[in-house]
Amino acid sequence: MKTILYKAADRGKGDYGWLKPTYYFSFGQYHNPKNIHFGALRVLNDDFIAGGGAFPTHSHDNMEIVTIPFTGALKHQDSIGGRGVIKAGDVQIMSAGTGVQHSEANDSATEPVTLFQIWVFPKENNIKPRYDQRTFDVTERINKWQFVVSANETDNALWINQDARFALTKLQAGMKLDYTNIFKGNGVFFVVINGTVNVGDIVLEKRDALGISDSDSFTISATEDSELLAIEIPMN
């Protein structure tokens, strides 16, 4: 098993006033030529959006963009007729495909929004743009994986235009949980949203991440109640 450790304290940072992002990979105000992506995972931004903050209308193409809110609510509107609000417990995916324009804004003038926004290179370029989102029952991820985005139909998740899977769990202190790849040759980018866990002899704390490759599976042990994200992703 090969691993790359991404310590929370070593991530890049940006400050746009209303937006304060923390970057796992080079993006925006952070550039590190040695840290551009992990396989097909191009972007993972840990965003803080102040009350009233908004991304003005902008364009995307040929990228799979997943948004996972933790607190607050984010509203969006796009050029293909979609609009709505996502909040904690929801997951949204946009396949930008041939091109889409959209805007995003904090739905509150006073309360912040915190979220992960994640970009994945697509399997097939120039597909028809699409949005999808779903509210997931967070009790269904206690001490087990809840697949929220996946190209594997049996996962009953939001579809992604890539051989990838996104899984969330709330792992209680003292519990162990295995993750096994479903797509041959994939790696896993594993993020501790909250808590402290061990992967082998590697200790991971809040917002630490571990890139895992050349292994079909790994085991997580929680030393305290923890919330975790696993992104299974092609490495080529």
Annotated CATH homologous superfamily of the largest domain: Jelly Rolls
Largest sheet: 7 strands, antiparallel
Q: Kindly, what is the distance between the CA atoms of the first and last residues, rounded to a whole number of angstroms? A: 17 Å
Averaged pLDDT:
96
Strand residue percentage: over 45%
CATH architecture of the largest domain: Sandwich
Report the radius of gyration as a whole number of Å: 17 Å
What's the helical proportion of residues?
under 10%
Separate helix tally: 0
What structural class do you assign from the helix and strand content?
mainly beta
CATH top level of the largest domain? Mainly Beta
Q: Strand order across the biggest sheet?
A: 2-3-4-11-6-9-12
Description:
It is built from no helices and 21 strands. The protein has strands spanning 2-6, 12-13, 19-23, 41-49, 54-60, 64-71, 73-78, 83-87, 90-95, 100-106, 113-120, 130-135, 146-150, 165-171, 176-180, 187-194, 197-199, 202-204, 209-213, 217-222, 226-233. A hairpin with a 2-residue loop joins strand 17 and strand 18. With 236 residues, the protein is mainly beta. The chain has two domains: 11-135, Sandwich (Jelly Rolls); 138-233, Jelly Rolls, CATH 2.60.120.10. The strands form four sheets. A seven-stranded antiparallel sheet has the order 2-3-4-11-6-9-12, with no helix packed on it. Strands 1-19-16-21-14-13 form a six-stranded antiparallel sheet, with no helix packed on it. The protein has a four-stranded antiparallel sheet with strand order 5-10-7-8, with no helix packed on it. The chain is globular, with a radius of gyration of 17 Å. The mean pLDDT is 96. The protein starts with a strand and ends with a strand.
